[in-house]
Amino acid sequence: MLRFKFALTLGLPAAVVLGSMAAYSQSSGPSSPLTIGGFSAEPNQPAGQFNVSAAASGHPKVLGIDPMFDFGNVYSGTTVKHTFRLKNAGTAPLTINGVRTSCGCTAAQPTKNQLLPGEESDIAASFDTRTDHGPATRTITVFTNDPVHQQLQLTMRGDVKVQVEATPSLVIFERVKRGTEQSQQVTLTDEMPDRTFKLGAITNANPYIKVASRAAPGAKPGALLTITLLKTAPAGPIADVIKLITSRLPVEIPVSGTVLGDIDLNPPQVSFGIVPHHASALRFLRLTNSGDHPVKVTGISSNNTSVIAAVEPVKAGREYKIAVHLAPNTPDGVLRGMLAIKTDDPHQQDVQVPFYGIIGSFKG
After folding, report:
1. Is the entire prediction scored with pTM above 0.90?
2. Residue 131 carries which DSSP code?
3. Fewer Cβ close by (within 10 Å): the C or N end of the chain?
4. How do residues 47-90 score in pLDDT, each as one tens digit?
5. Which CATH class name applies to 263-359?
6. Strand 333-343 vs strand 236-246: parallel, antiparallel, or unpaired?
């Protein structure tokens, strides 16, 4: 009845229309999908056609083709490059909303941000291995409208071999008595296969740290460094970085430690730990003088008004007790600061004592 009315509205004889529709119904079927505007209404449509009814009821599905790229072994300084492929394995259009990379990694924009079912897109990624040593991993996170996997992670991983190995990789002068000299050795070994290693300029900032070098023994090219803490170093913490120019990448060797004077503090810093809201706290330090002459504590100050300290002699000139008080109602949060102890020792007139704590509750 509906077909008949439709035919009449077009001004065609009903018999002609009905006959044509009967012929069409005989020729159509599972092997002859009905097409509308170039889109197939059947699930197994030819390539390039989009299923309208499936899109209405389907959803996009992001698929990473080989989402893990293992670049094997490379030398530091190598730029690792790889192109990842994404595919829309769903039944509705897929949208790539954005791409985020981990530290030290870069990624180009996808070649396509809108993918019909079956279509693919490429993302080119790279990272510089200059600062890596050993196992290295970089990730690229792809944000999509896939309701099941809104974030897809792509990964590049492998092992980065240094061009020049420093052994040990850092130098620590641990609790060196003031007025004494101490040395440590570091071996530089060239790990590159062409055996053309050359050591250039060596620089550092701390005037109490000196560095000497000579050729390293052994089959591999390299150098042997002698790092010396001079006896003229004042009491207190040591910090330095030795920078070496080589025919490979530059090499840096951190140096740290402590020079002990006649005055010693135990513990060397104050930890209040986690202090409840509105509460106070009290900690004690022991200052001792091991020198030949007595030492007087002439004053003590704090750079934080919530922390005050008082000094009490135990053995005049030799030992003092220092009470460090955290005031109640200190504002919540991380507490950090420094105590400055003044003495009449000509070599340690100002002794620094760090303090720290968490007031209220810990929030990571």
Report:
1. no
2. T
3. C
4. 445 555 545 568 999 999 999 999 999 999 999 999 999 999 99
5. mainly beta
6. unpaired
